[in-house]
Design brief:
The structure holds two protein chains of two kinds. By secondary structure, chain A is of the alpha+beta class. Chain A has three domains: about 5-145, Alpha-Beta Plaits (2-Layer Sandwich); about 160-225 and about 290-370, Sulfite Reductase Hemoprotein, domain 1 (2-Layer Sandwich), CATH 3.30.413.10; about 230-290, Alpha-Beta Plaits (2-Layer Sandwich). Helices cover about 35% and strands about 15% of the residues of chain A. In chain A, strands 5-6-7-12-13 form a five-stranded mixed β-sheet. Chain A has a four-stranded antiparallel β-sheet with strand order 1-2-4-3. Chain A has a two-stranded antiparallel ribbon with strand order 8-11. By secondary structure, chain B is mainly alpha-helical. Chain B has one domain. A two-stranded antiparallel ribbon of chain B has the order 1-2. In chain B, helix 2 crosses helix 3. Chain B is globular, with a radius of gyration of 14 Å. The chains are: A alpha+beta, B mainly alpha. The interface of A and B includes residues 56, 195 and 199 of A. The structure holds iron/sulfur cluster (SF4) (2 copies). One iron/sulfur cluster binds next to helix 11 of chain A.
Chain lengths: ~400, ~110
């Protein structure tokens, strides 16, 4: 790419696969600063370290989040990337865009930034890369003109995100896109003006396949489930039986061992089904989620930073989100507010909600936010012999 | 390193205008920095600036943004922290980290982005 020699990056262009280096070079053919991005990247491969400083105080008027600062550690060498900030832009739930919208976004990205964007960052945002603080306001205003707004960063409610849900997926147990949009709009203040001790993420998946990985990556995950029985079409089962070994690939792989397949009859003891989706995903034409659909809420998942990674715990095994939709998600927003009030009351700086609940005890937490514990949320039932049944003892006396 | 000229003194600041040597801070400097962003410091601004400086002296770190919101809600007799948080952006439109901390002469807050 002319200005900088980039032998290591060139390696990453070999082969017939897409290459991010090739994409950056295409952007660099129109953007002077992005030429320096290539140079700096080559140097960081040589030196074996990243050459970005962490964070930085950048942003637009009235917002405390949405712009992530990226400053080069070696601006003398690569002046184009002295400031090369990232804007997080709220995506459209389900990630549907018209080609016209994409062109307009691309034009903004060429005009005010380094000509590169991310669809989408792991946060679920559209990310526009490579602008300076001086350009931030104009970039933001032109995004607003075509109906886009900034997302969350820092100690904010991070941009909620959803799987494609009912728009294209037969397994969706609720309207993920609608829920995501409405709830984002309701909590927009918390997205734009960081009010917390640390970040908070909400993700919506329509079924336990969990395409947004919400169960591992969001403080509050909303995962579609059903309450009744998995629907079985025995004829279709018979068709599958002709093509592969159902015992080996479905029955034996059921984590709760609740399926039987005897004399051509496929049955599920649904009481023990943990809704892992394995059987349904393996034989989608024969099996379908039940009809009584809703969502479960899990709380407290997070990535490793500060206190190690964790999965969420089951807060509500079944929440009737389809009914709550008719009430404008008021149950959900009230519950979230109570969780935040609890966090506010007891949290510490940079402590995620999952860590706080562990420190405080799940029982105490549930009592404070006013949720009755449900037997289904106990991870290992009947293993502790030291249980005192006050009421029963009273009765005997 | 960049410098700003103030009352005939050269004061060292980082790329984003945070002063590097906290002992160079004076109330006049705060007024001066705010004016550059087009902001007149009112009594409420000053209460927050003084409070955050005290907090920093005690703890050697800036308070969590949650505490700033609480403090603002208290100072302005607002009903809750949420309102306090909104009020901060009326007082400091670029947000507490980019304005309040800078005018108070404290070191740039670090944190997760
Ligand atoms: S999470 Fe489930 S409902 Fe959503 S897209 Fe994936 S498979 Fe479909
Ligand atoms: S969904 Fe999973 S747990 Fe339930 S029956 Fe199918 S394989 Fe078993």
């Amino acid at each position: 790419m002319g200005k900088h020699k980039t032998p290591q990056l060139d390696e990453l262009k070999k082969g017939k696969w897409p290459s991010f280096v090739r994409e950056i070079e295409r952007a660099a053919s129109k953007s002077e600063r992005t030429v320096d991005l290539l140079g700096q990247l080559e140097k960081s491969y040589e030196d074996g370290i990243t050459l970005w400083k962490h964070g930085g105080m950048v942003g637009v008027r009235g917002y405390g989040s949405g712009v992530v600062g990226r400053f080069s550690d070696v601006p003398e060498e690569f002046p184009g990337v002295q400031e090369y900030h990232t804007a997080r832009v709220l995506s459209v739930p389900g990630f549907f865009y018209t080609s016209d919208t994409l062109r307009k976004l691309a034009d903004i990205c060429d005009k005010y930034a380094g000509g590169i964007f991310n669809f989408h960052g792991s946060t679920g945002d559209i990310q526009i890369l490579g602008f300076t603080q001086a350009e931030a306001e104009d970039l933001f205003q032109s995004l607003a003109k075509i109906g886009f707004d900034l997302g969350g960063s820092g100690s904010a409610l991070r941009s909620p995100s959803a799987c494609v849900g009912q728009a294209r997926c037969e397994w969706a147990c609720y309207d993920t896109m609608h829920a995501c949009r409405e709830i984002t709009n309701y909590f927009l203040d918390e997205v734009h003006r960081p009010p917390f001790y640390y970040k908070f993420k909400i993700k919506f998946s329509g079924c336990p396949i969990d395409c947004t990985s919400s169960g591992a990556r969001s403080d509050l995950s909303v995962i579609g489930v059903w309450k009744d029985n998995i629907k079985i079409d025995q004829e279709k089962i018979a068709e599958y039986a002709n093509t592969f070994d159902i015992i080996k690939y479905v029955v034996n792989k059921c984590p709760s061992k609740c399926i039987s397949f005897k004399e051509g009859k496929f049955t599920i003891n649904d009481k023990f089904c943990v809704k892992c989706m394995h059987c349904i995903a393996t034989m989608p034409r024969a099996l379908k989620p039940g009809d009584v659909k809703g969502a479960q809420l899990r709380l407290g998942a997070k990535a490793p930073v500060v206190d190690g990674p964790r999965l969420g715990f089951l807060l509500l095994p079944f929440y009737d989100i389809n009914k709550d939709k008719e009430d404008g998600y008021s149950y959900f927003t009230d519950l979230v507010q109570r969780i935040w009030d609890f966090w506010d009351e007891h949290g510490k700086n940079r402590e995620r909600i999952g860590e706080l609940v562990q420190r405080f005890g799940i029982g105490n937490f549930m009592e404070e936010i006013g949720i009755e514990p449900h037997p289904a949320v106990v991870s290992y039932p009947r293993t502790n012999p030291y249980i005192k049944f006050d009421n029963q003892i009273d009765k005997e006396e | 390193m960049a410098f700003i000229e103030f009352k005939g003194q050269k004061i060292e600041v980082d790329d984003e205008g945070y002063i590097q040597d906290m002992s160079k801070w004076t109330p006049d400097l705060a007024e001066f920095l705010a004016k550059q962003d087009g902001i007149e410091l009112t009594e409420t601004h000053w209460e927050l600036i003084n409070w955050i400086r005290e907090y920093f002296n005690e703890n050697q770190v800036c308070p969590a943004v949650r505490l700033v919101a609480k403090k603002t809600a208290d100072l302005c007799s607002l009903s809750n922290v949420k309102e306090g948080n909104k009020k901060i952006y009326e007082l400091f439109p670029d947000g507490p980290a980019r304005m309040l901390v800078k005018y108070a002469g404290l070191s740039k807050p670090t944190g997760c982005v």
